[in-house]
Design a protein that fits this description.
Elements: E1 5-8, H1 18-33, E2 37-42, H2 54-64, E3 74-75, H3 80-92, E4 96-99, H4 103-112, E5 140-143, E6 149-154, E7 158-163, H5 164-167, E8 172-174, H6 182-192, E9 197-201, H7 208-218, E10 224-228, H8 253-263, H9 273-288
Parallel strand pairs: 1-2, 1-9, 2-3, 9-10
Antiparallel strand pairs: 4-5, 5-8, 6-7
The structure holds glutamic acid.
Length: about 290
Amino acid sequence: MTPYVGRFAPSPTGPLHAGSLVAALASWLDARAHGGRWLVRLEDVDGPRCVAGADRLILQQLAACGLRPDEPPVWQSQRGALYQDALDTLVAAGRAYPCGCTRRDIELAWAARGVARPRHGELVYPGTCRAGLQGKPARAWRLHCEAGVVDWHDRRLGLQRQDVQAEVGDFVLRRADGLWAYQLAVVVDDAAQGITDVVRGEDLADNTPRQILLQRALGLPTPRYLHTPLVLGDDGEKLSKQNGARALELSEPLAALRAAGAVLGLQVDGADTAGWLGAAVRAWRATWGPL
Ligand code: GLU
């Protein structure tokens, strides 16, 4: 059996808050409960959304909670060469193509087919540039998605399925502004770091089929997945800076761990963070047992 390697992969767009600690704690507990290693990867590919110093603060907050990575953390902003290699591989295999469409072009393509623009969410890409750029300048790079439903298993949510081509369309690998897309970076890094188990918030569950298609296109293994419950803000949406999330207090790690544990269904006690974490690992193992 491949030894367990897990990870926490925060985007340093701000400090850890009650919601992001849940994902950090769950990924750490799952690694410890299975005798595995736990890594931290700072997902700072979207430079304009990152906040200076948030990466260091997140690492301090994790350490204050007793969550220390088993290897030095890595920063995605330093790993562009790996993402370029992966894109080159996909292009050479005929699986990635340049796209010259603006948002408006995509809306017009759907309107021409009699489909009104959806009011919410991202537009499904209709595949216009699969047939070539037709004289338009290249803006982004997209994955040519294979047709059909992706079936996958989540340890908490059970069987999941999505027809990526129909529900998302050929998705972006490198953005029009030149930045690497999350989907490509996360797939390349999970494989490069030997990640066997992805434990993260449920808001990312519907990204998983895209990541599985990319893994297949690149000949990479698919890890196991467990998506955790989310902490909701006042407006019923996932807790974020926009709806009232406050930075975790470095001075109150035990209270923060207890609150995160409660979201994960862990009713355990401990006199200090180490004691609480030890009890939480045992409780986690009892629920999420052998893989
Ligand atoms: N960086 C992503 C986020 O903070 C998480 C990526 C992942 O766990 O796959 O939302």
